[in-house]
Amino acid sequence: RKEVEQDPGPFNVPEGATVAFNCTYSNSASQSFFWYRQDCRKEPKLLMSVYSSGNEDGRFTAQLNRASQYISLLIRDSKLSDSATYLCAVGGATNKLIFGTGTLLAVQP
Amino acid sequence: EAQVTQNPRYLITVTGKKLTVTCSQNMNHEYMSWYRQDPGLGLRQIYYSMNVEVTDKGDVPEGYKVSRKEKRNFPLILESPSPNQTSLYFCASSPFGGGYEQYFGPGTRLTVT
User: Fold this and answer.
1) How far is B97 from chain A (nearest CA, A)?
2) What letter does residue B58 receive in the DSSP assignment?
3) Radius of gyration of chain B (CA)
4) Which residues contact B87 (CB under 8 A, 6 or more apart)?
5) Separation in Å, CA of A76 to nearest CA in chain B
6) What is the distance between the alpha carbons of residues A54 and A12, in angstroms, rounded to a whole number?
7) Which of B40, B41, B99 sits opposite A94 (nearest CB)?
8) Which residue of A has its CA nearest to B102?
């Protein structure tokens, strides 16, 4: 079993839709959680950290479920510019971040 | 501007010809790391460094070397590149350590023929 798993997608959604991604992790001692956005052939960019209480940044909401060992990212009112690959990253249990392989989102007009 | 820079951005080389990919950060981060990204395999850590003169192997260190003589620089060295090292390489740094948010350079696309 992979340490961090994501549905690779693609998720094809119309503009304005709400879309949610999940990411599961296997190490229950993990302490830090992040969502990154990666555009094609470019560097991953930190989108948001994920806190135990959940957090929101504009149209983006991240949540952590420790009991079931997953994090989620919700995007409301999808824009064409949201099309990208979304990577989750989990860390803190060891001195490294473990990345998922990413979920591809394609927002269509 | 706070950033991680890498050079070169694109490189085509031949098997066995030694090369170095430079990485520099201007954020005074102690932690730096190198990753390779391949389709279907995601980001895999090659080497990391907790501080100057402190380096350690990641998950896929074979065929690579690193050094950390200064805080800002963390070059990746391929002594004898092989075609299976064709990949997209990212350098990253973190203010808090390896298990926390990391900030990535723009990437180096390497092709070894």
Assistant:
1) 7
2) -
3) 13
4) B36, B37, B38, B110
5) 24
6) 25
7) B99
8) A46
**Residue B88: burial class (beta carbons within 10 Å; 0-12, 13-18, 19+):** middle
Q: How far apart are CA A86 and CA B50, in angstroms?
A: 27
Distance (Å, rounded) from C-alpha B55 to C-alpha B67? 7
Asked if A99 has any chain B CB less than 8 Å from its own CB, the reply is: yes
Q: Which of B30, B36, B104 to mutate against chain A (most A CBs within 10 Å)?
A: B104
A85 CB within 8 Å of a chain B CB: no
Read off the pLDDT of residues A2-17 as tens digits, 9 standing for 90 and up: 899 999 999 999 999 9
Task: Tell me the pLDDT tens digit for each residue of B80-111.
Answer: 999 999 999 999 999 988 888 999 999 999 99
Confidence at residue B8, expressed as pLDDT on a 0 to 100 scale: 98
Whether A46 and B100 lie within 8 Å, measured CB to CB = no
Interchain CB distance below 8 Å, A91 and B42: no
Of A48-52, A81-85, B7-11, where does mean pLDDT reach its minimum? A48-52
pLDDT exceeds cutoff 80 at A94: no
Find tokens 């706070």 and name the residue: B2
